[in-house]
Amino acid sequence: MATFKDFRNKVKPNWCPGCGDFSVLAAMQRAFANVGLEPEEVAIVSGIGCSGRISGYVNAYGLHGVHGRALPIAQGLKLANRDLTVVASGGDGDGFAIGMGHTVHAIRRNVDVTYIVMDNQIYGLTKGQTSPRSAQGFQTKSTPQGSIEQAISPLELALSLNAGFVAQSFSSDLKQLTHVIEEGLKHKGFSLINVYSPCVTYNKINTYEWFKQNIVNLDTLEGYDNANRGQAMQTLMEHDGLVTGILYQNKERLPYEAMIKGFKEEGLAKQDLNISEEQFDRLMAEFA
């Protein structure tokens, strides 16, 4: 049985010292091992940005995709080989700006993929510009007088789309983060996990200390029921989205691949796709 060390490779991350993404990497490696996976059973597809490099830092199948397009690649990969545990990853700019259209439809579609977003509320790789998750008034090189736009609320959006699994964690809480990723991996259907992952170089507002003072752990809320979507939405709004833990899970919703009529149990990668000339001609005639 694999341990978290088996999911390490010899590539040294080149993130800034103190970057929250180091903890996300460690939590992913621990979660893979804790749910009984082997390296050859995992595929990680990442987008562009500092966090996009994570697919190259895990001893598993990895693909560093194009900006905002991790999710369509990950969904295609899962449908082609259902035996793989597929994880998509990226930053808030990657997933909630150029990739937002894919994020919305991936949630709606509900393919069995776990999407881990490293949310640092800034564009870090391009040296510190305002992102879709930056708060109103946030000052950067691109908004020197403060952003006049409201920040996107990804968890509220996910709940409005009836997502099957919605969670949020903080990179400083490795134990909770590992647990949340484990549960997301085990969930059948699309799982959205937003992780507050501070950028120590360019975001001097949303720091580790700021999050520690402002976030609320859902486990401390008496009577909280993560099977209640209405309560989840209300709790998010009451705390301005600053909650951590499993916000909502619907175990009854079937994943996309389980609802396709005639969809075979084995993925395309495992199917015998050899067809006779007669079968091919008949297939072509249908589209003539």
From TrEMBL:
<keyword id="KW-0786">Thiamine pyrophosphate</keyword>
<feature type="domain" description="Pyruvate ferredoxin oxidoreductase beta subunit C-terminal">
    <location>
        <begin position="199"/>
        <end position="264"/>
    </location>
</feature>
<keyword id="KW-0460">Magnesium</keyword>
<feature type="domain" description="Thiamine pyrophosphate enzyme TPP-binding">
    <location>
        <begin position="48"/>
        <end position="195"/>
    </location>
</feature>
<dbReference type="GO" id="GO:0030976">
    <property type="term" value="F:thiamine pyrophosphate binding"/>
</dbReference>
<dbReference type="GO" id="GO:0016625">
    <property type="term" value="F:oxidoreductase activity, acting on the aldehyde or oxo group of donors, iron-sulfur protein as acceptor"/>
</dbReference>
<dbReference type="GO" id="GO:0045333">
    <property type="term" value="P:cellular respiration"/>
</dbReference>
<keyword id="KW-0411">Iron-sulfur</keyword>
<keyword id="KW-0560">Oxidoreductase</keyword>
<dbReference type="InterPro" id="IPR011766">
    <property type="entry name" value="TPP_enzyme_TPP-bd"/>
</dbReference>
<keyword id="KW-0479">Metal-binding</keyword>
<protein>
    <submittedName>
        <fullName>2-oxoglutarate ferredoxin oxidoreductase subunit beta</fullName>
    </submittedName>
</protein>
<dbReference type="InterPro" id="IPR011896">
    <property type="entry name" value="OFOB"/>
</dbReference>
<dbReference type="InterPro" id="IPR029061">
    <property type="entry name" value="THDP-binding"/>
</dbReference>
<dbReference type="GO" id="GO:0046872">
    <property type="term" value="F:metal ion binding"/>
</dbReference>
<dbReference type="InterPro" id="IPR032686">
    <property type="entry name" value="PFO_beta_C"/>
</dbReference>
<dbReference type="GO" id="GO:0051536">
    <property type="term" value="F:iron-sulfur cluster binding"/>
</dbReference>
<dbReference type="Pfam" id="PF12367">
    <property type="entry name" value="PFO_beta_C"/>
</dbReference>
<keyword id="KW-0408">Iron</keyword>
<dbReference type="InterPro" id="IPR051457">
    <property type="entry name" value="2-oxoacid:Fd_oxidoreductase"/>
</dbReference>
<dbReference type="Pfam" id="PF02775">
    <property type="entry name" value="TPP_enzyme_C"/>
</dbReference>
